[in-house]
Amino acid sequence: MGRMFGTDGVRGIANTELNCELAYKLGRAGAYVLTQNRHKPRILIGKDTRLSGDMLEAALVAGICSVGAEALCVGVIPTPAIAFLTRYYDMDAGVVISASHNPFEYNGIKFFNREGYKLSDELEDQIEDIIDNKLDELPNPTGIGVGRSVKLENASVDYVDFVRKTVNTDLESMKIALDCANGASYMVAPQVFSQLGAEIFPIYNEPDGTNINLRCGSTHTNMLQDYVLETGVDLGLAFDGDADRVIAVDEKGNIVDGDKIMAICGLYLKEKGKLDKDTVVTTVMSNMGLDIALKDNGCNCVKTNVGDRYVIEEMKKSGFCFGGEQSGHIIFLEHNTTGDGIVTGLQLASIVKEKGEKLSELASVMNTLPQELINAKVSNGRKYDYDKYDEIVNAIKEIEGKFEGKGRVLIRPSGTEPLVRVMIEGQNKNEIKKEAQRLVSLIERVLN
């Protein structure tokens, strides 16, 4: 059996892969691991707009209360709001019921510790071990020892107030389109930007439980791109279902992805003397154009494995304050302990306002290098052996040597399929395509 926790909590199709029984067990085991030895622990719970959220919330709360903890439910709210409010309210832990950018039939459960950080692999393994082997050994308090569920009414107000205070300027005279993905940002994002004086144009902000991420949001930006051009706004912001990521659209209708957002914001922070060690933390999937843009402007770039949790772990370990992913998870550690789409969108808009430049002009600091991604078909048993053969290793070195620092080769075995993913970046599209095909043929010949 595979590991229950993925890179962002436990996720699956609601009521089958992620059913009420599992939600109950996660609530029970999670509450015990995260709050043991604390008197009457309190756990904050939020969710996105999915139809299955109520069902899973009820089961999760039952599990939490069964070990004597209190569940404080805030309803629909962005994931980063739970990270912030767990600290702000001095809770013992936080939980979000969401499947982020996935279709509505999916759902997920992810935990935050009392400092507002996602859990380490070790803590997740403890929770999983209890569910698999020790659930019956957990305490079953009775009488006044049983936990209870409480609804908190002002959580979104407190979060909006926090987000507004992360910038020192208003957005008067700015026109901003907001694609809320029919998700958790549908109420708070318009409030934040309108309270700061922007004229807002919200779209996809009428959730019905089934339309979250449906041809909208950060993974489907076509409609927002068209809408920006039709309305003539200064920029557009597309959030995902739980609003922990954002993709921007400039005034010309062009996508400004997480890499370009990091280039703009990272260089702005450096200019203000607020970029610790002049370093931006990214993952191996960020385009090399970001590395080049940062280097050309006196900044460093540190790479981690894919996943915003690994970016944050590196930031905490090495004393960095800013980083993120190409997908739009951007972390301003000065403000929040996880990716926060609304905070990021607000920082970006405030830079546009302060500098008096168009977003397209700011984004031009980075040139995205062409990429070619081809899968090599190999057996599951050998897909991790590509670096054990000199023939393959030397071919990779030869290709990268041709690029002279303006390109790279990235090899990633698939976690679920019998494939080795070969991605090459470089300045010449035809050249990198030819090199990728040659390397894939070599890997298939050597490993099959």
The largest sheet has its strands arranged as 1-5-4-2-3-6
- Note the overall shape: globular
For the sheet with most strands, the description reads: 6 strands, mixed
Number of strands: 18
Average per-residue pLDDT, rounded, comes to: 95
Describe the structure.
This protein is of the alpha/beta class. Helices cover 38% and strands 20% of the residues. It has a six-stranded mixed beta sheet, with helices on both faces. The longest helix has 19 residues.
Write a brief structural summary.
The protein has 14 helices and 18 strands.
List the helices and strands and how they pair.
Blueprint: E1 10-13, H1 20-35, E2 42-47, H2 53-66, E3 70-76, H3 79-88, E4 93-97, E5 106-113, H4 121-134, E6 149-151, H5 155-164, E7 175-179, H6 188-195, E8 199-203, H7 222-231, E9 235-239, E10 246-249, E11 255-256, H8 258-271, E12 279-283, H9 288-296, E13 300-304, H10 308-318, E14 322-324, E15 330-332, H11 341-355, H12 359-363, E16 371-377, H13 390-403, E17 408-413, E18 419-425, H14 429-447
Parallel strand pairs: 2-3, 2-4, 3-6, 7-8, 7-9, 12-13
Antiparallel strand pairs: 1-5, 4-5, 9-10, 10-11, 14-15, 16-18, 17-18
Helix pairs in contact: 1-2, 1-4, 5-6, 8-9, 8-11, 13-14
